[in-house]
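Design request, tokens follow.
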């Protein structure tokens, strides 16, 4: 049994809204998304940001630290994703010494609940 087993947040999620940015910014480079893998790793991309996630799991919450690039600058931070009653997730996403945003995501219809062979 792994730490991620039974966690309903596993899979790929489409970020559909944010409190700090509009939808056109979220999808600036590619469709905004977060992927939560079973192996303690994931990824997030929105706007000009692309970052890897280091994950910690609980039953309905995933905590993470992240590091990546935004407009060719190194950036990092932390956050968490929580499963809501409407089957969406709310992501609290914080930049190290910077902004904190709340994002909402819906499960991608092609996503499955389990990634059995490595990272997403």
């Amino acid at each position: 049994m792994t730490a991620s087993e039974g966690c309903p947040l596993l899979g790929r999620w489409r970020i559909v809204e944010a409190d700090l940015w509009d939808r056109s910014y979220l999808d600036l480079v590619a469709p905004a998304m977060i992927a939560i893998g079973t192996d303690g790793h994931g990824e997030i991309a929105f706007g000009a940001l692309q970052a890897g996630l280091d994950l910690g799991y609980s039953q309905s919450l995933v905590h993470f630290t992240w590091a990546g690039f935004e407009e060719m600058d190194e950036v990092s931070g932390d956050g968490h994703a929580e499963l809501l009653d409407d089957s969406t997730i709310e992501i609290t996403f914080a930049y190290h010494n910077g902004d904190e945003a709340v994002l909402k995501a819906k499960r991608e219809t092609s996503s499955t609940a389990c990634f059995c062979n490595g990272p997403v």
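Comment from the thread starter after seeing the answer: thanks! Residues 23-26 form the longest helix (4 residues).
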